[in-house]
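Box S1 | Example of a co-folding query
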Amino acid sequence: TDIVSIEHVSIPSMAKLFYFHGVGMINQFTKNWDNIQNFKARPDDILTATYPKAGTTWVSYILDLLYFAHMGPDRQTSIPLHDRVPFLEICKPPLPLHLTSKLPTTPRLIKTHLPVQFVPKSFWEQRCRVVYVARNAKDNAVSYFHFERMDSGMPEPGKWSTFLQNFMEGKMVFGSWYDHVNGWWEKKQTYSGFHFMFYEDLIEDCGREIDRLCSFLSLSPSPEEKERVKASVTFDNMKQNKMTNYSTFDSMNQTISPFMRKGKVGDWKNHFTVAQNEQFDEDYKQKMKNPDLKFRYEI
Ligand code: A3P
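Box S1 (continued) | Returned holo structure for adenosine-3'-5'-diphosphate
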């Protein structure tokens, strides 16, 4: 069956995309801009940065377990992950209150979808460590499409063909995938506390990726601790886990599309027509000229 021809239902939304310093944004991420820009980072803060739908939740959960599993089960069973690893630019309640009230821990784990040029200066001045997660553009687009269908805080995506065109043109919340990934990749070349991860690598071998993350962070969990982290962060376990599946989040209608949707590499093949794929590849070559930055589209 051709999934492209299926009518996709979206939840109605009032969110409207506009250009903010040249980047597609919506009001909820810009209305407290000065507070975001003036955020005071601490040297031991760890910033997880991603383009939306690249694996933010997965890596946030790995980090939270690596640092705080020892704090006992309460944190894991009673505090939703999005409160343990808060979202820098979300404005409910306005920054810095929502962050400071949610971050009694050391280190503080913070996530952001901002393109690199929008990151508050303090993170760089304090030499904070940064983990960037990137996902191949085709699966990233598909995941983003389904997310916009189910989250009323995001603009409505329209039909898949319309959404894909907008994705290629960078008319997206948090801007162009191409600019985001290229911008952060460039930052990695000049900033030492930087760990660049790929969603596809996590799918291929999550244990290896946890090892690499630990070595970047100078953590040395015991083999048992590592196994526990690995077992907790499987797709199925995170989908069942109310603290990681966003079931506590009001704006999402998970009957339209679950937050933990498929968790696969290559689902784009069920969405792209042959013509769309050819057009996408052609356009991609123009925008992604750096030969060092390579993505995998299947495993
Ligand atoms: P799909 O929509 O392709 O299923 P983010 O956390 O950045 O919003 O990304 C969400 C995407 O990551 C979703 O992709 C979700 O299913 C996937 N994901 C989250 N946890 C995962 C896990 N443990 N294993 C595989 N994929 C995961």
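The chain has a mean pLDDT of 94. The longest strand covers residues 129-134.
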